[in-house]
């Protein structure tokens, strides 16, 4: 479902036919978008993921899943930059750690820019980007940017994303960026020290499935089988504008993993957003050859606690709502829970029997006839991860 948000942004999504015309015109202007055998055509639209998530939902992990590169984010880590760190507070202290950015009142019930899963795929040579959000009530709010360092050289391209709301430490080096909002999707290019828009096309922002995404017309950009470095940020739009023009905040990043099991697992992300940790910590390599080959990679998670996400079937109101005492209720469908992987075990995604060594009763020593037949193991059924 796509809603008219022209009252907010003063914009209206261009009709598909107009987008096609604009796309062809831009392609003719910029040229060199890929191999010369390709003819400009009407933009394609990849099917909307029905899941809407793909794969096991394990926070802080990357995987290739049968044609989709997936990043699974942490839930409720949409707390933006650690401004305490930026102002000299000790970020190793819990009082100062983590993000400090609050949603404005017009973003009620909050949690409006909380990435759960980012999916990158290819459909008929076109780059496809989908984001699943924890909360998507007002389609005017979320604004997603996925930027690519196409030459895998941080020294070339844009050092930062537009808007200045992420004062990153270390250059991102991104050449192109795809943005998705209810007002439409755009491809941006960085050249001669400035970002410019290379094309506008349709976006999906769906409060029913909590999905937002787009298919980039292949006339404008085609990843082929290249390996690109990627960075993705989620913020909001307001009546004054979006985070991409500096008028609102960035709340969440993709690809920042290895978070401690404290707060909302956003300490590293909040320091990256504050410029206290290097931006390269928020970059992932995306291998489009592995996507085209429909590779299904294993998720390697270390022994110890990992955060999994459970998608509730309950239809709640979403957002973070506080009662009269100020106690919050977290009403999005994706609920985090911790899973402990014992040392010596690997997560495979399949149900597993964990043998438990029973207390050996007093009795015959090993080698006696009575212990030749070992007792059956006590089975512990470990729940299948994800859905
Ligand atoms: Ca998140
Ligand atoms: Ca670059
Ligand atoms: Ca995040």
Protein described:
The model is unreliable at 1-40 and 366-387 (pLDDT under 50). The strands form four sheets. Strands 5, 6, 7, 8, 11, 12, 13 and 14 form an eight-stranded antiparallel sheet that branches. A six-stranded antiparallel sheet has the order 1-2-3-4-10-9. It starts with 5 loop residues before the first helix and ends in a 46-residue tail after the last strand. The longest helix is centred in the N-terminal third of the chain and has 15 residues, at 16-30. The radius of gyration is 23 Å and the shape is globular. Helix content is 9%, strand content 28%. The protein has a single domain (6-305), classed as Immunoglobulin-like (Sandwich). The protein has five helices and 18 strands. It is mainly beta and 387 residues long. The structure holds calcium ion (3 copies). One calcium ion (CA) binds at residues 73-74, 77, 115, 252-253, 256, 269. One calcium ion is lined by residues 149, 151, 153, 156-157, 173, 175.
